[in-house]
């Protein structure tokens, strides 16, 4: 029933829900097509620009270059953040995790300069900036997941005769791996927001961020919108892949979620 | 000939006191739980543990389970007696915690693996699944189990690795009468698994718990000779009740007997006074 769409916590039928989503998308498209003020490029212009970007400017190759860089940075950042977060079990390392978490307030502009001084290649600088940016956000999310561990959970492991390290491994590492994956999924977006900055600083390897920068610089707004939509679509696909991985590897994780 | 006699100690508390930030929570608690032997019967025992909310029952449970070192005193378990370590005493907390990322079978295996070889652990886990009526649910995750199944699983998990002692925190809380009967059956099942098995039930359900118990402890404050309240709660000698010696243990339908009703009324009065 349609009225279910406006009742708190209601569960509308899937067909009703899908129809509602289709209507909302259609409304947005119609708004885009017929909005009287032409501040925004038309749908036709965006599609034409998208075609041009694919055929003459190598949008797919640039997207692939950025995606591989982003995935590489995410993998390294995830390992680093997990290490820093798990080490908070030892009081000695807690200040490091605290400091790492606070570093998300740093601007990357000055940081790239120091990275450039320390590293030899542009690729390394690009990667290290992305890794740094992602790590500090991941550490923040991961340590907050660890902090949700209750006395009851730890006591339960201890009553089974597990040592402190084994209890930590069982309750925090194994028990919260699904939540860590969720933190990684949520923070992957940070890399996409940083990629434009780093790709414009080190242009030799190209990338979709550089392509976006060029479209913006020459005021090709249709091109900007087309690239933004491609990034949006890639992000949505990533989210789907992460959700799929979570369902596959951690089937228990959604059992307690209100539906 | 006496219908029961007492042998070696199973659990000993000596001069247990606990303070948090200078505030005395528990004071001078000394208790002995001895192996009760009844000719021709192989059964463990049940200790009922009462006290007002917030008086320190959970703190004492954590101390007995070896999870919290007391400010003073010692807890001894096993035969020969030795200081308690985490894992010696099973502790089923109120919300029946299990590892949510493991299936039911895995939950039992991880506990059984502590004392047994992998092959024996598998056999033990399977035996407990059958014994606790959980076999059809072995592949389920804890979130897929009902409250009763979860409680049975939590008890089975703790039994698989503890040294005969298990604490149940509020096992009857929020249950209907049919479920209470189920839990009573489980507790009796646990005590019949081994002569030395001892279940400590922390509860506010006096009638149900007393009917199952051999011994009762009542945790409460004490007054000095001048009538002044002493800081911290304790289980004084007069608040350690030997239900077996009173002739009120191990009898079906005991709850209807006047002596039992009198005991319950007395316990209620003592708790109110506290």
Summarize the structure.
Chain A contains eleven helices and no strands. With 259 residues, chain A is mainly α. Chain A has a single domain (42-249), classed as MetI-like (MetI-like fold).
Q: What would your notes on this structure say?
A:
- The complex is a heterodimer of chains A (259) and B (274).
- Chain A has 11 helices and no strands.
- The two termini of chain A are 18 Å apart.
- With 259 residues, chain A is an all-alpha fold.
- Chain A is 74% helix and 0% strand.
- Chain B is an alpha/beta fold and 274 residues long.
- In chain B, the strands form 2 sheets. In chain B, strands 3, 6, 7, 8, 9, 10 and 11 form a 7-stranded mixed sheet that branches. A 4-stranded antiparallel sheet of chain B has the order 2-1-4-5, covered by helices on one side.
- Chain B has 2 domains: 5-88 and 166-178 and 191-273, 3-Layer(aba) Sandwich (Rossmann fold); 97-161, no CATH class.
- Chain B starts with a strand and ends with a helix.
- The longest helix of chain B has 17 residues, at 177-193.
- The A-B interface holds A 152-153, 155-162, 170-171, 174-175, 177-178, 250-252, 255-256 and B 62, 65-67, 85-91, 93, 95, 97-101, 110-111, 114, 141-144, 157-158, 161-162.
């Amino acid at each position: 029933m349609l009225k279910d769409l406006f009742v708190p916590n209601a569960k509308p039928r899937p067909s009703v829900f899908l129809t509602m989503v289709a209507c909302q998308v259609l409304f947005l498209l119609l708004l885009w097509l017929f909005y009287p003020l032409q501040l925004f490029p038309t749908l036709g212009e965006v599609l034409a620009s998208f075609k041009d970007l694919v055929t003459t400017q190598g949008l797919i190759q640039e997207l692939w270059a950025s995606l591989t860089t982003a995935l590489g940075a995410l993998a390294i950042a995830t390992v680093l953040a997990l290490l820093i977060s798990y080490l908070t079990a030892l009081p000695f390392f807690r200040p490091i995790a605290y400091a790492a978490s606070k570093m998300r307030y740093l601007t990357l502009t000055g940081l790239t300069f120091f990275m450039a001084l320390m590293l030899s290649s542009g690729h390394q600088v690009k990667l290290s900036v992305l890794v740094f940016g992602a790590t500090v956000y991941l550490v923040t999310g991961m340590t907050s997941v660890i902090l949700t561990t209750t006395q009851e959970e730890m006591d339960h492991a201890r009553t089974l005769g597990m040592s402190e390290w084994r209890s930590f491994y069982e309750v925090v590492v194994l028990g919260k791996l699904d939540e860590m994956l969720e933190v990684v999924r949520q923070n992957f977006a940070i890399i996409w927001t940083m990629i434009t900055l780093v790709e414009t600083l080190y242009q030799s390897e190209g990338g979709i961020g550089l392509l976006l920068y060029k479209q913006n610089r020459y005021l090709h707004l249709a091109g900007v919108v087309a690239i933004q939509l491609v990034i949006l679509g890639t992000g949505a696909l990533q989210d789907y892949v992460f959700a799929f991985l979570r369902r596959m590897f951690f089937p228990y994780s959604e059992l307690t979620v209100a539906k | 000939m006496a219908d029961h006699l007492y042998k070696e100690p199973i659990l000993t508390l000596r001069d247990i006191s606990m303070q948090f930030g200078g505030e005395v929570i528990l004071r001078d608690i000394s208790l002995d739980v001895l192996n009760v032997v009844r000719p021709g019967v192989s059964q463990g025992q049940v200790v009922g543990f009462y006290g007002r909310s917030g008086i320190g029952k959970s703190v004492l449970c954590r101390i007995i389970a070896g999870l919290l070192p007391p400010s003073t005193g010692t807890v001894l378990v096993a035969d020969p007696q030795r200081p308690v370590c985490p894992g010696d005493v099973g502790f089923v907390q109120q919300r029946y915690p299990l590892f949510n990322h493991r299936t039911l079978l895995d939950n039992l295996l991880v506990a059984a693996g502590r004392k047994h070889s992998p092959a024996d652990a598998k056999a033990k886990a399977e035996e407990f699944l059958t014994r606790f009526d959980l076999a059809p649910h072995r592949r389920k995750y804890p979130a897929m189990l009902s409250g009763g199944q979860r409680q049975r699983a939590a008890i089975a998990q703790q039994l698989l690795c503890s040294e005969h002692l298990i604490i149940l925190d509020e096992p009857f809380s929020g249950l209907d009468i049919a479920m209470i009967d189920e839990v009573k059956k489980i507790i009796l099942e646990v005590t019949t698994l081994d002569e030395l098995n001892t279940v400590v039930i922390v509860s506010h359900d006096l009638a149900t718990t007393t009917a199952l118990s051999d011994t009762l402890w009542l945790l409460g404050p004490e007054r000095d000779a001048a009538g002044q309240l002493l800081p911290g709660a304790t289980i004084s000698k007069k608040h350690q009740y030997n239900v077996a010696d009173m002739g009120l243990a191990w009898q079906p339908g005991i709850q209807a007997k006047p002596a039992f009703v009198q005991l319950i009324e007395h316990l209620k009065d003592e708790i109110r006074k506290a």
